[in-house]
Design a protein that fits this description.
By secondary structure, the chain is of the alpha+beta class. It is built from 4 helices and 6 strands. The protein has one domain: 2-Layer Sandwich (Beta-Lactamase), CATH 3.30.450. It is globular.
């Protein structure tokens, strides 16, 4: 699908359904990266407690359908997850994708070692009902790695 058409469709859907975390819509990489950078700036501006609360709130500016902000501490403990609040406070280091890649370790490692960058993995897409390639743009922010992922 042409990116311009996809953007119009996303805008129409977001406008009509609001921020529904269980809806996994595709987003181009630039959109995921921009939201991740906005989240990092917000984190620096308001601090950890407010940022984590807002990143987790279903109808915030940091949760847009299947595009949401997630954060992990350097040990892989989930601090925020815009789609799965049950992950909060859980050690997710050993959760692996279908290929055996430990996703949270890859996300945290990318943030810590590079400061910012892309981490690739496979993840279940609830809309497609299958695992698909996903990429997260992550940024290290004061001992916490936050990012936004999209389905490729």
């Amino acid at each position: 699908m042409d990116h311009r058409i996809a953007s119009v469709v996303r805008t129409a859907l977001f406008g009509s359904i609001g921020a529904m975390p269980w809806v996994a819509l595709a987003a181009p990489p630039a959109e995921a990266k921009a939201l991740s950078e906005r989240a990092a700036a917000y984190f620096a501006q308001v601090g950890e407690a407010k940022a984590f609360a807002d990143f987790t709130r279903p109808h915030s500016d940091f949760v847009r359908g299947g595009v949401y902000t997630l954060c992990h501490d350097r040990d892989g403990v989930n601090e925020t997850h815009g789609a799965k609040p049950l992950f909060l406070g859980k050690d997710l280091r050993r959760i692996a994708d279908p290929d055996g890649k430990e996703v949270r370790i890859a996300i945290v490692k990318t943030g810590v070692e590079q400061g910012r960058g892309w981490a690739d993995f496979r993840w279940p897409n609830p809309m497609a009902k299958t695992s698909q390639q996903k990429s997260a743009y992550v940024i290290d922010s004061n001992d916490v790695v936050c990012g936004v992922a999209y389905y490729k």
